[in-house]
Amino acid sequence: MTPETSGQSPLTPSPEPQHPETSSAEVPSPAPIPDVRLDLFEGPVELLLYLVRKNELDVADVPVGRLTDDFLGVVRQATALDMGSTSDFLIMAAVLLRLKTRALLPRGPEEDLSTPTVSLEQIMDEFRRYQQVARMLSDKESERRLLYPRAGESPRARQAESEDVVALAAALKRVLAKLSPERVAQIAPPKVRLEDKIADLRRVMRERRSVDFEEVVTGTTVAEVIVLFIAVLELVRLGELRVHQQAEFGTIRLELREPDPAPNG
């Protein structure tokens, strides 16, 4: 395995443009996604994934776990969280992790090396569609907040919610690490649709009102875990779910969020 740069994090924040000093009452700008800096590669994580998929980089040499750990550390220290960029990075890391696990698994004598064990195109198509929808919803949510701010909502409350979403990201990593080789190397999985998983998650939450994230993804494939993770982020963004962690490294609870009361008048 290619060694990492000694004593240096493989994630280095991109330089931020300088802005005039702002009032302390203003919400801080979301932190940018840092570039990946390794001995074998330097650049955005999207390019890293592209090169791996084109077989121009050996996925076995990519320290995916270290990248994810360092990224979560950067996010935890940020004063504001860019939900879209955070989920983008984690999906990319999850796909890299699946590719790396597949590369390290022994293959059967009759297995065609050119046949993908899990359809990356299905995952990435859903991912691109999620990106477009999420950005549109984020813009709409920003407009709604200007017109109808939530009663009692404070920057501290938004920061706490951001931290719980980061905890959800860490839970995603744990779930993917626990998947059995049979689940990782499943041949010809059925198509996983984001819309279907959102509908399934809404049904479960209406029935249960509160459930562990790891319980939701128990017995699923890698593709299903990733799409379920996107579905959770989407419902959090829509204000339908709340992500809650009572203790550090504790279980992640998904809680049904009651709708805001209609404004009087």
TrEMBL record:
InterPro entries, per database record: ScpA (IPR003768)
Entry-linked Pfam families: SMC_ScpA
Region of interest (Disordered), residue spans: 1-31
Compositionally biased tracts (Polar residues): 1-11
Protein name (database record): Segregation and condensation protein A
